[in-house]
């Protein structure tokens, strides 16, 4: 073997060893939150950030990339290099409701690889404590009378569909159009709209509302569960004769671009199991009414697609499909 050939072989060997040593992650990971500060997604993401960062062993750079009911941030991750350095906090609105409602959405579920769902939470419907609305019957009467407005985190978001679904269940004719929808840029802004009187009514995840309810700023009228939710002194959907509303739940998961490698996805599975088992994280999230349940990539994919099919049927039944 010539010295030139030997040198080439050695160089190749060194490069191969170097590649083996370069294990993911080598640097900080960008974590996209597709909704604004103060909403359910933002709260969940920032609560798990510390234990998740400890499990990853590298900094997590949290960024709220808002707009279009979660679509703007989702597209940013869809178009990112599938190397695991740009990941998304996927949410029921961005990856179940949005695909079900919007015909022109610039992505489908197939454009992402879900590595987990780790949080499930029910919805609650609330008004300001300054409101004259004391019950769902009062809300329905307002909608049928002088008018009822409701806020949401955006057109095609979970709160948009939830409020319409609840009002329809309680008998409001043409619920998709009879109540006045006032979309906002994120869940925090949707809650603020109710607090300042811009909107009358809001249906969203308990995790985004528990602080306002506990400090007396908001009055819960309903929780979309069979059993009562701690901290929410309100009747359940089932107790009011509407068990069909139990299918309206929120969830938070993590996804990367569709071509995310198997080894990267597997690492996220390990990290999420460790992070979601952190006692302080679990305590904080359960205090907000959330249920912590870590799903494998396969379980998460099955769950999210079932949610999509459920909401697609609801959208068709309510005539809420957005074609333009």
TrEMBL record:
SUPFAM superfamilies named in the record: Periplasmic binding protein-like II
Q: Does the keyword Signal apply?
A: yes
Query: Span of the secretion signal?
Result: 1-22
For this UniProt record, the keywords arranged alphabetically read as follows: Signal
InterPro entries cross-referenced by the UniProt entry: BUG, Bug_dom1
Gene3D superfamilies this protein is in?
Bordetella uptake gene, domain 1, Periplasmic binding protein-like II
The record's comment on protein family reads: Belongs to the UPF0065 (bug) family.
Know the name of this protein? Tripartite tricarboxylate transporter substrate binding protein
Gene source species: Roseobacter fucihabitans
């Amino acid at each position: 073997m010539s010295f030139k050939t030997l040198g080439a072989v050695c160089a190749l060997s060194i490069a191969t060893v170097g590649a083996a040593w370069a294990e993911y992650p080598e640097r900080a990971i960008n974590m996209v939150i597709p909704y604004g500060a103060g909403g359910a997604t933002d709260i969940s993401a920032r609560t798990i950030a510390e234990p998740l960062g400890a499990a990853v062993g590298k900094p997590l750079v949290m960024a709220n990339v808002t707009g279009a009911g979660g679509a703007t941030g989702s597209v940013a991750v869809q178009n990112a290099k599938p190397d695991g350095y740009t990941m998304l906090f996927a949410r029921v609105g961005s990856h179940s409701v949005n695909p079900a409602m919007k015909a022109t959405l610039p992505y489908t579920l197939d454009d992402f690889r879900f590595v987990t769902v780790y949080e499930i939470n029910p919805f609650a419907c609330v008004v300001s404590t300054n409101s004259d609305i004391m019950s769902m019957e009062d809300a329905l009467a307002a909608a049928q009378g002088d008018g009822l407005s409701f806020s949401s985190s955006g057109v095609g978001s979970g709160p948009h569909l939830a409020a319409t679904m609840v009002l329809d269940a309680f008998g409001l004719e043409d619920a998709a159009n009879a109540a006045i929808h006032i979309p906002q840029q994120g869940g925090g802004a949707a809650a603020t709209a109710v607090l300042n009187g811009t909107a009358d009514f809001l249906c969203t995840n308990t995790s985004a509302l528990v602080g306002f309810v506990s400090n007396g700023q908001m009055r819960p009228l309903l929780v979309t569960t069979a059993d009562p939710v701690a901290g929410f002194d309100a009747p359940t959907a089932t107790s009011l004769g509407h068990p069909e509303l139990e299918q309206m739940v929120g969830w938070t998961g993590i996804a990367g671009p569709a071509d995310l490698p198997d080894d990267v996805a597997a690492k996220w599975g390990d990290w999420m199991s460790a992070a979601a088992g952190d006692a302080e994280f679990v305590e904080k999230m359960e205090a907000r009414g959330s249920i912590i349940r870590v799903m494998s990539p396969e379980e998460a994919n099955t769950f999210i697609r079932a949610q999509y099919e459920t909401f697609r049927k609801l959208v068709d039944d309510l005539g809420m499909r957005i074609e333009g």
